[in-house]
Amino acid sequence: MKHYLAWAALAAAVPSLALAQAAAPPKPAPAPAPADKDAPKVGEVVVTGQTAPPVRTSIDRRSYSVSGDLQAQSGSVADALRNIPSVEVDVQGNLSLRGDPNVTILIDGKPSSLFQGDNKAQALQQLPADQIDRVEVITNPSAEFRADGSGGIINLVTKKARGAGRTGSLRLNLGSGHRAVAGASVGYNSKKLTLAGDLGYRHDTQKLAMDEDRRRLVAGGFDDTLQQQTTHFLVDSYTGRAAADYDLDAVTRLSGQARFNVVKFDLDSLAHFNGEDPLGASTSAFNRTLDIHQQRANGQVSAGLRRKFKGAGHDFSLNFSYDFTNDDRVRSGQTQSLLPAAPDAFDQQRIDNRLTQADLKGDYVHPMDGGVTLKLGFDIQRDDNRYNNRGYRGPAAGALTPDAALTNLFLYRQTLSQAYVTYEHPFGPLTVLAGLRVEDAHLDLTQVTQGLHNTNDYARLYPTLHLAWKLDDNQQITASYSHRVQRPGPEEFNAFRFLIDPLNYRAGNPGLKPQETHSLELGYQLHKGPALYLATLYYRENYNGVADVVTDLGGGVFLTSRANLAQSRNGGMELVANGRLSKTLSYNLSGNLFWSQLDSLGPGFPAARSIVTASGRGNINWQVTGADLVQVNFFVLGKRLTPQGYGEPIYGLNLGYRHKITDHVAFVMTVQDALGTFKDRQVIDTATLKTTTERNFDSRMVLVGFTWTFGGGKQRDPGFDFQSGSAPPQ
Question: Is the pLDDT reported for residue 126 higher than 70?
Fold first, then answer.
């Protein structure tokens, strides 16, 4: 009951404080002396250079520019994120922060269903990165941010209209394998009005070769199932955004935005399966073809109001957004049995998913004398999702009949009511930022086909604490603690067994609990000339972690489901360096040495295991001449523990070159996966099941293109830019 009362008090305080300020508008203050709007704020570190991307740090986040990353100009969001410290993206687009895959992704500070469920990795690999200006990495968020995401938060800050009057750009890149990336941006700035729009198109082809060797314990030893599969992908992605800001008066701004993303995905694969007994004699063999046609449309509309009060940074903002996703897929499979010989079997699954999310968020920021800042806010989110699978089987593609075993309807509804307060207070060289987030969650799960209904209501308190000790103008020590939660995704609750192929099914688990995480960090910052050096020690304790578990159903058929790990923990040290070696050579390097431990899931699973491994990345920029820039990007992802095994290291090398033809026209060439090493190898090693799966993607490609920009002039006052919360550091 105390949780509900605290939430109600905080939620009620935000609008009442704002209305009280609005009722008595501030008297006009004397015009201040002209100031540089882009100058760093107190307590912020900004590193800039002629070609080095700027890095911005504050007490609770780090912000990295990707506008100078040549891979981001022609690649996907996943390509851009691979060059960001703390961030790891594997071959399949799966994202993690310092080894933790439970990451919340925001766009301009707002959640999006685009990055939820099994489409998250696909969206990261298909969305063009040229619309992203900065990436905010928040590994230990304050209470100002939602508690979701045990690994932390990544906020993608989109580009804003720059310059006075009309501005814009056109981008076109063509690549090997008939790949193409194109985009256009336009903007308009006047004294009261800002308009911005973006359109993007990406055409991508890819080939995947997969080899799997699966051995299971049976009478007489281990039998063996070998799978060889070749898959071809064809993807067309369309994105668009339109945004407007209008100042009603000197203290009131109205904002609106609409964005969409449409992905058309076609896949065809041919797989050969061969089974052997413990003596090596063939016992079964079949071929499997699979065609997938998918169209996913995601859109979001949002509206915002911001009211400024007396004093810099003193304001109230109210934002509403509505997000929807329509995901339609048709999966058509054919199984040709070779041993024993049998007639061909056909199956088809028609998937119709409808996801909606509505969010209302309010934030009040009140700076006070002495550098004290009070923030209050509330956030109410409603999810209403519908997952409809219809399955068919038959002796021929034209003679399919409904199959109850492949048919399923699952409904997911979630309501999150949240409120927060943070209080920042400097005590000489020490700055303290304390916060508390109150959350009331209601979850309603209905498995219509199986007649199952589950609800889960709970209230939680999530405290946070951040400390910053300024040693001098160039050095700072930081420390932080946060309590966070990782809620399972909607489809992870669905107990329906989804057919992957005749030997593999996937199912959710309605009994999943949210993961609770306690996170600690200790950091050191050194600003020396144009260089910034960061060192961070971190430790995370996880309870009820959720991960994949593979179960033998018998007859060579396996089920991959989700389960709560008893407990896991990890920690490590991350080093980041940004600077320049000369007037023409700059660098951005980072490395992460970490330890991870997983407890056993119980009998039949591996005992508690731990590992020490390392990951790293680097960007080297060489400004050969005033018009020519060469860029080298490389990354290494270390060995990763999984509940039943591990994933082997992944590494890659990317190259880029830009030639400035005129002040408005540039030629760009990029080479992705220059060494052809971007591969993935997963191992399951238990007493009764041993599996090795290797995936080789045809990810090496060359892209060449041109960028044309027009317009310019003085930039409009950016004081209302929204980047992950109220009045964040610039």
Answer: yes
> For 2-22+189-703, CATH number?
2.40.170.20
Mean of per-residue pLDDT scores for the chain:
87
State the greatest distance between any 2 C-alpha atoms of the chain, in Å, as a whole number: 90
- Alpha-carbon distance 534 to 523, whole Å? 7
- By DSSP bridging, strand 152-158 and strand 103-107 are parallel
The span from the CA of 651 to the CA of 666, in Å, is 30
Beta bridge partners of 710: 168
Distance of CA 478 to CAs 203, 206, 375, 533, Å? Answer: 44, 44, 20, 13
CA distance 25 to 236: 51
What are the boundaries of each domain within the chain?
2-22+189-703
CA torsion sign, 391 to 397 to 398 to 399? negative
Q: Give the C-alpha separation, 651 to 639, whole Å.
A: 11
The rounded Cα 529 to chain-centroid distance in angstroms is 33
Nearby residues of 129 by Cβ (< 8 Å), 6 or more positions away: 66, 69, 71, 72, 73, 75, 76, 77, 79, 80
Beta strand 193-218 pairing with 179-189: antiparallel
The amino acid sitting at 137 is V
Burial of 5 (0-12, 13-18, 19+ CB in 10 A): exposed
Is 163:184 a contact under the CB 8 Å cutoff?
A: no
353 near 330, Cβ under 8 Å? no
HEC readout, 420-451? EEEEEEEECCEEEEEEEEEEEEEEEEEECCCC
Mention every residue, 6+ apart, whose C-beta is less than 8 A from residue 15: 316, 362
Which residue(s) pair with 673 in the sheet? none
How many other C-beta atoms are found inside a 10 Å radius of the C-beta of residue 57? 25
Task: Give the pLDDT band of residue 138 (cuts 50, 70, 90).
Answer: very high
pTM of the predicted model, to two decimals?
0.85
How would you write 534-600 as a 3-class SS string?
A: EEEEEEEEEECCEEEEEEEEECCEEEEEEEECCEEEEEEEEEEEEEECCCCEEEEEEEEEEEEEECC
Residue showing tokens 């990890």 = 570
The confidence score (pLDDT) of residue 574 equals 96
CA–CA separation, 389 and 585 (whole Å): 55
Q: For the chain, first and last CA: distance in Å?
A: 39
Could you read off the pLDDT of 92-106 as tens digits, one per residue?
788 899 888 889 998
- Closest alpha carbon to 143 in 422, 417, 382: 422
For residue 727, the model assigns a pLDDT of 31
Among candidate residues 193, 221, 227, the one with its CA nearest the CA of residue 209 = 227
Length of the chain counted residue by residue:
730
